[in-house]
Amino acid sequence: MDLDELSDRFAVSKMTIHRDLDDLEQAGMLRKVRGGATIEAGSHFESDFRFRQQQEGEAKRRMAEAALELVEPGMTVMVNDGSMASVLGELLPQKRPLTVITNNAAIIDRLKTESGINLIAVGGRYSVKFNGFFGVVAEQALSRLSADIAFISTPAVSGLRVYHMDDDVVRSKRAMIASAARRCLLLNHKRFNHTALHVLATIDEFEVIITDQEPSVDVRTALEGANVPLRVASQASK
Predict the structure, then answer these.
(1) Which of 2, 85, 128, 217 has a CB 3.0–4.6 Å from the CB of 36, allowing a cystine?
(2) 204 exposed, middle or buried (CB, 10 Å; 0-12, 13-18, 19+)?
(3) Which residues form a coiled coil (predicted)?
């Protein structure tokens, strides 16, 4: 949103808008940029879960359906935080019986009454921004569990590195990666060629990457060089 547009829309001064944007940025709701504000991720910023949950709904659904093809009844499945992962959580009952391990509050709420789902909710410090549980308690719990497959989502990939802007989130995702026999990376195509503050993993730590649209040629070439399969959950493949 443009600063002038916000000022005109709410009939207040630019200074008032500046102060409001400062407060919203402090609360983790948006990121101030030159001349306005955005909810798009930056190297140090990820928007609030409530915003992300409303974005790219169809793309997330296609990616979740592609991820579901990797799940078989009887498996133990880890699913991390995030709005993309929460959509996958909604579909998991289709593959019951399953054991589902997650720190994602949206998935916990969705699966807590489902028959045929052995739900292991990872506790810890709750984050409103990421709508999940993190910290030492979560990391220790994950380190003492084992899964057939872990689904890891991320806001940034550049070259052969996977990034995230929050160190607590990185540690919980790393704990899942270490505790799973197979790892699948879930990534919106818009997040290729972006970085964030922390390196979360390298591409070759994953058996497969699922995205919603074909990435650029240079991205595809880099992934092929790392020998990591890329599945594109495009509209045409449905």
Answers:
(1) 2
(2) exposed
(3) none
Measured distance CA(121)–CA(108) in Å, rounded: 6
CA proximity to 237, closest of 209, 208, 206, 214? 214
Residue by residue, what is the 3-state secondary structure of 160-225?
A: CEEEECCHHHHHHHHHHHHHEEEEEEECCHHHECCCCCEEEEEHHHCCEEEECCCCCHHHHHHHHH
- What are 36-83's pLDDT values in tens digits? 887 766 555 555 445 555 556 688 999 999 999 999 999 999 999 988
Query: Could you tell me the residue ranges of all domains in the chain?
Result: 3-39, 56-232
Q: Which amino acid is at 174?
A: R
Q: Are 173 and 139 in contact (CB under 8 A)?
A: no
Architecture in CATH for domain 56-232: 3-Layer(aba) Sandwich (3.40)
User: Tokens at residue 99, please?
Assistant: 């054991």
- Token readout for 98 is 């399953």
Whole-angstrom distance, CA of residue 64 vs CA of residue 181? 20
Beta-bridge partners for 185: 152, 209
Nearest to residue 56, comparing CAs of 17, 82, 24? Answer: 82
pLDDT, tens only, 180-217: 999 999 999 988 999 999 999 999 999 999 999 999 99
Question: What pTM value is reported for the model?
Answer: 0.80
